[in-house]
Structure formats: C-alpha cells, structure tokens
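Risk register update: the risk of archive-format incompatibility is retired. Evidence:
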Amino acid sequence: MRDTAEASRAPAATTRDHSSTMTSAIRVLLAEDDLDARATVVELLTSLGHDVVGQVGSGREAVAAALETRPDAVLLDVHMPDGSGLEAASAIVRDHPATAIVLFTGDHELHIGATEVEQSGAVAILAKPVPPTMLDATLRMAVSRARALSRAEGDAVGARTELENRKLIERAKGILMRRTGSSEQEAYRILQRTSQDRAKPMVEIARAVIDSEPKPTSTG
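Archived output:
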C-alpha cells in the first residue's frame, strides 16, 4: 500500500492553490494501516483544505474513532489488519447513517461489485493512487449524497410517525364521540383543549383516551 505514498507526493503541491477555491472543509477520518501512505494522504487532505479529525490503522479503530469524532466522511482502506474495510463501513453507517464512507484500495486485482459497495453503506470506491482532484470531488459528492439520503430517511420516518399519530387521534375522537354524544368536530376540540390545558401533545392525550377504554373480558 506504499504506492499511495509515492504517487501522492508530486501532485500534493499543485493542490494548494486548488484548496483556495473550496467553499467548506470536510471533517475526514482516515483509516489506512500503512504509516507512510497514511501520512501522505493526511498531507494531501490538508492541502485540499479538509480537516483530518482522526487517523487510524484498523477497521476496529475506525469504528471506535467514528463514534468519538463524528466525521463528515470516512476514508477507508479496503484491506485492514483486523478484517475488511467493508465490514467497518457497515458498522459505521449502522451507527451513523449520515456519515459518508469512501473506500480505497491499491489492490488492482481486487474486484468489488457495486452491490457489495452499496451493501456496506459506502458511497464510492477509489483506486490508489488517487488524483487529488478526484479525491476531493469524490469526498464532496459522498458527503452530499450521504446527507441527502439521511434527510430522505428522516422525512420518511417523520411521515410514518405523523400518519400513526393521525390514526391515534382519529381513534380517540371516535371514542369520545361514542362516550359523550359529541360531533366529530366537538370531539377534536375536546382533545385540543385537553392538550393545551395539560401542555402535552395531542397524540399523548389521544393515547390516554384509548388506554382508558375498558378491555374486553374473556368469556372463557
């Protein structure tokens, strides 16, 4: 994995002017077990204007460091002393869905399918040596995509929660209409006033109404 160290030194100097055009730094965690290669990639990332928040030499350390540093992106070598970078990627994404994972490898005979990369949670895979402009563009694309996916998942969860809350409120309204003989609008106002008086969300009031319903007794 020393090819990164040798190939990245020359272009690193040419990227310093390039970094001045960047609008924002990315907080990167680097997982690379080759010390020389790691130092070179750190220098390259710094020259591109990014902030290296951690550098580790194994997949297990990468998972722990991601928990501690909360990076925007993790640059992971596919080959790790304690296992595959794919496994580390899966563990990181499972705990931090908004973290962008970019895999890289110097093994040009290694064939990793798009399905394997996707299943690991990684956004992209790069071959060493990585041209500075490609590394920068890939990191930015990965962070943008990971954040978009995280927002989409959050919106989906929010929509499901809202739907479930509406169902509970409708059910509570029906109970109140049956108990009090009130109209649907009046039952809604009862829930609304109670919510305001108790300073609690209406869905909590609805759950309390539903929970107060007598449980059917078994006729055995």
